[in-house]
């Protein structure tokens, strides 16, 4: 099964939670930070819950950003 979806906002994660299967070990989620996962330094709580659930079912998450490592680090630590 291919796990390719386009995401533009936290609604992607709401859809992902609704459609969850039990095993995402064959899936890699690449997620932009700004305007998708977070607004400024704020990560929507629904996004955090969905990512935690996705990872708990063996899904792999990669963050994509144009931020510097120093700027992205505080957000990455929250995940």
Would you give an account of this structure?
The structure is a single chain. The protein is of the alpha+beta class. Helix content is 38%, strand content 18%. The chain contains 3 helices and 4 strands. It has helices at 11-18, 45-56, 69-78; strands spanning 28-32, 38-39, 42-43, 60-64. The strands form 2 sheets. It has a two-stranded parallel ribbon with strand order 1-4. β2 and β3 form a beta hairpin. α1 packs parallel to α2. The longest helix has 12 residues, at 45-56. Mean pLDDT is 77; it is low at 1-10.
Largest sheet: 2 strands, parallel
- Supply the helix-strand structural class: alpha+beta
- The percent range for helix content is 25-40%
- The DSSP helix count reads 3
Quaternary state, please?
A: single chain
Sheet with most strands: strand arrangement: 1-4
Write down the overall geometry: globular
**β-strand amount:** 15-25%
Which key features would you list for this structure?
single chain, 79 residues, alpha+beta, two-stranded antiparallel sheet, 38% helix, disordered N terminus
What's the structural blueprint in terms of helices and strands?
Elements: H1 11-18, E1 28-32, E2 38-39, E3 42-43, H2 45-56, E4 60-64, H3 69-78
Parallel strand pairs: 1-4
Antiparallel strand pairs: 2-3
Helix pairs in contact: 1-2
């Amino acid at each position: 099964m291919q796990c390719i979806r386009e995401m533009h906002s936290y609604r992607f994660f709401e859809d992902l939670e609704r459609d969850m299967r039990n095993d995402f070990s064959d899936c890699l989620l690449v997620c932009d930070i700004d305007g998708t996962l977070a607004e400024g330094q704020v990560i929507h709580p629904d996004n955090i819950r969905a990512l935690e659930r996705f990872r708990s079912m063996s899904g792999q998450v990669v963050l994509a950003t144009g931020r510097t490592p120093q700027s992205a680090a505080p957000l990455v630590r929250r995940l």
